[in-house]
Design the sequence.
């Protein structure tokens, strides 16, 4: 082992999303970092940073506790400072842009080499993005399920009202959707609304 | 896509994304949106609630927001790169004046010999006595280092010879978490914006000791700050944005609208639960001692002298480096733009001061300054302890 292998950086992770926190945590630990996990809270945060003296704090961009960290960095010479102080070094401004877009903010102590900081921040960005993708996929799956329910209901209504079979009902929905350049589920919702309103065209007079 | 659809998309003005914090002085943005002042100017504005000032600042720097509601020192701090890399910002309008208060936990406020409504200097001295008797520092919170909260609190404490260190432990806590911190005894007091002083009093957690207005009379509190490159690219939209917000501010100063305002603020999009609680306070939404206002006496005029004086206070408390201090004059010139405000005011048929600065701290009452068509009245600007700031 060469002598210039630096000691493991201590990373404090502040995140109220337990699933995301565990993604980031295991990714960092697998790369040899020491991770101190911390849920965001008024009472604990400032004290925890003072006590544990992390080299880097990774905190959710949307945490209200960021302003407490900003204040610490002004008041104490030894407290971690916002990562934006590294922006003057080449390549870092892209990292910072990527971090903001991914919802990661980071605070680091003075004197850390930029490349060591960047390695940690890159891991956090990747895991934050991964979590975002997972959440979007979940949302899409849910939407797809709800869409299918709407389409089934609309088909049923059309079959009953128009006396057609399932295939015809489906092709009616598809044709309207194509004519209007709308999603099938949107058309299905319109069809459901149309048949459920009272009046001459509505279901009750049919 | 059909030609008609394409044309209508091209005719749409670009969407303007503005950040705000869920505070009472976000009201001009909320009212401009909810009561149609943005729409009347043909503006498509998205308001995006932020959870910290640091987050708002970073998103403006990264271009995710075009601008937004900012603490009065924030455009200067951004332009000078204080606490973050420099981003050029233009501020052509003050959104609100006054709005902060120093609230002390009730258990400590009750130990003060003077009545809480007493004069600010005597109250500071009484607090100093309490701190020395208890023999350990008082833990006070503000909301953000580069804020009028921080500067007003430090100015007030300094009058009783108090400073962070042996007497005071200073910390920052997000406004939305301030009541929890008071309740749990994490802090003994705070300097925070409304509605949090009113709500602390309402919940019996603390008492308003001194208002920001009693420290710096009618100080600029929140301002509009827009990215300079956005203003350069969209001068006409920027003027219409200013016009819409001035109209919203005028609406806000009319007490006839305050019942309506309470309802708006309670909506989940804006102040949510804090707004709903504020709506229950009989005297609300505006605390009489805090004297928050939005339009009267040229409230919206962005005085360059007030920006210089804010920088002077930041320097005094070590929040502005010597290097940045050397750039102060040039930064105020490019960042604080009374000329753009005047153009918007004139387009609305309103007059505005023709001067860019005044000596601060020497006018305890409203006073006249020259406008384009005769004198206009400007609100008093007394500073605690009769201090003043000369201009030019």
Sequence:
């Amino acid at each position: 082992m060469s002598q210039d292998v630096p000691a493991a950086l201590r990373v404090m992770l502040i995140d109220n999303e337990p699933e995301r926190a565990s993604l980031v945590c295991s990714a960092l630990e697998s790369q040899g970092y020491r991770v101190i996990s911390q849920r965001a809270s008024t009472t604990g945060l400032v004290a925890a940073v003072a006590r544990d003296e992390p080299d880097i704090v990774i905190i959710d961009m949307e945490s209200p506790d960021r302003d407490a960290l900003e204040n610490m960095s002004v008041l104490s010479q030894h407290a971690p400072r916002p990562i934006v102080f590294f922006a003057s070094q080449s390549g870092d401004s892209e990292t910072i842009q990527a971090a903001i877009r991914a919802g990661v903010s980071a605070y680091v102590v003075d004197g850390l080499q930029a490349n060591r900081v960047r390695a940690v921040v890159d891991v956090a960005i990747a895991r934050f993005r991964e979590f975002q993708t997972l959440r979007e996929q979940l949302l899409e799956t849910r939407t797809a399920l709800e869409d299918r329910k709407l389409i089934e209901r609309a088909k049923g209504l059309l079959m009953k009202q128009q006396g057609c079979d399932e295939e015809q009902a489906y092709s009616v929905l598809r044709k309207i959707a194509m004519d209007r350049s709308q999603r099938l589920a949107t058309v299905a919702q319109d069809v459901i609304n149309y048949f459920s309103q009272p009046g001459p065209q509505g279901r009750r007079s049919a | 896509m059909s030609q008609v659809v394409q044309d209508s998309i091209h005719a749409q003005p670009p969407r303007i994304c503005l950040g705000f914090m869920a505070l009472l002085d976000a009201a001009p943005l909320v009212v401009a949106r909810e009561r149609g002042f943005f729409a009347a100017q043909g503006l498509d504005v998205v308001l995006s609630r932020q959870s910290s000032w640091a987050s708002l600042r970073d998103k403006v720097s990264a271009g995710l927001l075009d601008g937004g509601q900012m603490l009065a020192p924030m455009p200067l701090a951004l332009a000078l790169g204080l606490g973050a890399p420099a981003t050029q910002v233009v501020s052509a309008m003050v959104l609100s004046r006054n709005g902060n208060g120093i609230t002390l936990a009730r258990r400590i406020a009750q130990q003060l010999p003077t009545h809480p409504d007493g004069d600010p200097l005597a109250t500071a001295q009484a607090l100093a006595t309490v701190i020395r008797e208890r023999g350990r520092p008082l833990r006070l919170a503000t909301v953000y280092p580069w804020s009028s909260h921080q500067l007003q609190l430090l100015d007030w404490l300094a009058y009783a010879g108090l400073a962070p260190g042996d007497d005071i432990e200073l910390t920052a806590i997000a406004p939305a978490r301030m009541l929890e911190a008071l309740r749990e005894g994490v802090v003994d007091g705070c300097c925070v914006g409304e509605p949090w002083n009113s709500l602390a009093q309402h919940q019996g957690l603390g008492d308003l000791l001194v208002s920001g207005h009693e420290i710096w009379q009618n100080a600029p509190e929140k301002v509009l700050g827009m990215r300079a490159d956005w203003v350069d690219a969209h001068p006409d939209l920027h003027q219409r944005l200013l016009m819409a917000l001035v109209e919203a501010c005028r609406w806000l100063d009319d007490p006839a609208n305050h019942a309506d305002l309470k309802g708006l603020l309670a909506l989940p999009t804006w102040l949510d639960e804090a707004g709903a609680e504020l709506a229950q306070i009989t005297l609300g939404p505006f605390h009489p001692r805090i004297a928050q206002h939005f339009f009267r006496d040229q409230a919206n005029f962005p005085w360059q002298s007030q920006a210089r004086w804010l920088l002077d206070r930041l320097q005094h408390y070590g929040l502005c480096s010597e290097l940045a201090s050397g750039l102060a004059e040039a930064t105020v010139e490019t960042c604080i733009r009374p000329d753009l405000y005047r153009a918007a005011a004139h387009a609305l048929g309103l007059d505005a001061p023709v001067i860019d600065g005044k000596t601060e701290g020497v006018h305890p009452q409203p006073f006249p300054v020259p406008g384009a068509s005769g004198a206009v009245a400007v609100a008093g600007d007394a500073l605690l302890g009769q201090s003043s700031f000369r201009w030019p």
